[in-house]
Each structure stands twice: as C-alpha cells, then as structure tokens.
Design a protein that fits this description.
Structural class: alpha/beta
Radius of gyration: 18 Å
Oligomer: single chain
Number of helices: 11
Shape: globular
Number of strands: 13
Strand content: 15-25%
Length: 323
C-alpha cells in the first residue's frame, strides 16, 4: 500500500477539535439493492450523501441535506444523529425513497445498474437548514446539477467548495454542470468522467482542460487503482487501503470523498501537504465502505480506526506534472 505526497510529509493525523470546520453535505439518500460475488443485500440505506457523511463525520462536523420517503428507516437517521451528523436538513416526504439496484461482476471490476427509481427525490427541492447555510466547507454530491446549484444558492459563500458528478450529468446537463464547476475549488470525478468532461483521451490533458475552467484541484477516482489528485504544480496519488476483504464496493467513492473533505476541513489551506494526507484519509474511509454490505462497515468505526488505516499508507514524493 502506497500513497504519494511530499517528501518528509507528516504522518496523517485528525484535525484538532478547535480547527474542525463544519461541512455542508448534499446528495442522494437511497435504498440500495446489490448483488456481489460475496452475497446480496436488499433495501440497504445508501446514496452519495450517506456514504460521504459517514466518512467525513469521523473527522469534522457534518450538516446533511437530502430527501427521503416514508419508507426510509428512521433508525438510520437516528444513527447518524448519534454520530454527530446534523440531520435537520433531511426532508421526509410521503412516497418512496430513491431506489437503486445493481450487480457486480465476479471480479468486482465492473458494475451493471439494473434499475433506478428517483422516488421523492425527483420532485422535492432541497432546503438548507440554518445550521448549514454558513458552513465554511460544502460538498455537492453527484446528482442533478440544477439541484446542486439550488443548494449552493442557499449557502453564504463557502471557503471551500467541492463538487462530485457522474457521466449522466456530464452528458445531460453539461452547461449547468460547467457553470457549477467554475465556482468550485475541488472536483471529484472518475477516469472516464474526467476524459469526457475534459474532452481529451489523455487523462492529464483532460484534467488540465478542467482545471483551466475553474477548480484548481481535480481528484480522479481510479477504483481498484486508488486515486490521483491534480493540483498547482503537482500530481499526488494514493493506492487503496487494503485491510479486510471486499464484500460490497457500493459507496466507496463517496466515502473516499468524505475522508478527503473531512481532513481538508481541518487544514489551514489546500496545498500538496494537506491534499496528500487527505487522500490517505479518503482511501481509509473507502476501505471501511467496502468491507461489509451497505454502510455496516462504519458501524463500529471511529476516528482512531480511520487514522490508523490512513497511517498505514506510506507517503512518497509528489510528481510535478500539473500546472
């Protein structure tokens, strides 16, 4: 297991309580049904916002914004509240929660989406509570860019704005998404999404195009190959944190983003040192997500466990490949 950051970078450690900036997290809350080589799970609480919040809340306070139907288990929201996640921004509406069903290949290398039903998320508008409107850090999880923009319009100029997206929105809502990205300091995408958005076959060229349109940092999620962060004057990388076996990869990318943003919420600035450590916290959070079905990998996790996993990832020199 390896990660790259600056030579001599300090071992990753959680932020001191007094420095933890609040994170406003928006995205989907869903009930997932998945089939993997290790088994099956039905109607598991999931969604980008849930996995992100579980990863980030181990390092920083989170205000979660989203919508669920009357079939979403109240026990899950109670659990989030017990973990210190502010759930006052979650609207419960009459009707079905968003549902997603997928099947993973025998080697976990690919995933087939079998069905998606947006439920109440298709019609209900997100409302940011007063506790989140002034959050210094904001994460807009992968969903319709029009909804992401509506949430951003309710915030009071966050110091650090991160955006996540997916291929569907890049293709269907390109103009809205590009306007949003232009305002962000950090963008999360996978390799295919980066090439599509940057309109180039070469990953580095695509990222340069994206960064030229706004965000100084682009974090590319590479699945089983880890992740790579492209920033001013450097490229940083992290390999997956392998601790236990893989049961369900669902939500790993969102948990990864949670670990990254949780660490950056306690950093004085986003620079190669802080990003290098953040990538390792992200990899550690992703490892918690994949070891059990749904969000059960976070059930007994705490900050000490996350930090221990992050510290097992060895920093290596950064590569000066980005401008």
């Amino acid at each position: 297991m390896t990660a790259s950051g600056r030579t001599g970078e300090a071992r990753p450690r959680p932020p001191a309580p007094g420095r933890r900036r609040r994170i406003l997290a928006f995205g989907t809350l869903a009930l997932d049904s998945v089939d993997t080589p290790e088994g099956s799970g039905r109607d598991l609480p999931g969604g980008s916002a849930l996995y992100f919040s579980l990863g980030a809340s181990l390092l920083a306070p989170v205000v979660l914004v989203g919508v669920v139907g009357d079939d979403f288990p109240p026990s899950c929201l109670d659990w989030l509240d017990e973990r210190g996640v502010d759930v006052t921004g979650i609207r419960r509406e009459r009707g079905p929660t968003m549902r997603w069903r997928a099947r993973y290949a025998p080697d976990f290398g690919t995933r087939q989406t079998l069905a998606t039903d947006r439920g109440v998320a298709a019609t209900v508008q997100p409302v940011v509570p007063s506790t989140g409107a002034r959050a210094p850090v904001a994460f807009l999880g992968s969903t319709d860019p029009r909804l992401q923009s509506r949430v951003l319009a309710q915030l009071e100029d966050p110091e650090l704005l991160a955006v996540d997206t997916m291929a569907h929105w890049i293709e269907e809502r390109s103009a809205e998404l590009r306007g949003l990205i232009a305002r962000a300091q950090l963008l999360f995408v996978n390799e295919t999404e980066a090439r599509t958005l940057g309109r180039a076959d070469d990953l580095a060229a695509s990222v340069d195009s994206i960064r030229g349109a706004g965000p100084p940092w682009v974090v590319v999620k590479l699945g089983r190959a880890g992740a790579r962060a492209f920033g001013p004057g450097c490229v940083l990388s992290v390999a997956p944190a392998r601790v236990g076996g893989v049961q369900d990869p669902t939500g790993a990318g969102d948990a990864f983003a949670g670990g990254v943003m949780g660490h950056l919420a306690g950093a004085a600035s986003v620079d190669p040192d802080s990003m290098g450590a953040a990538l390792r916290f992200g990899a550690a959070a992703a490892s918690l997500a994949i070891e059990r079905f749904g969000v059960l990998g976070f059930q007994d996790a705490d900050t000490a466990e996350l930090t221990a996993r992050a510290r097992r990832l060895t920093p290596l020199p950064a590569r000066g490949e980005s401008t």
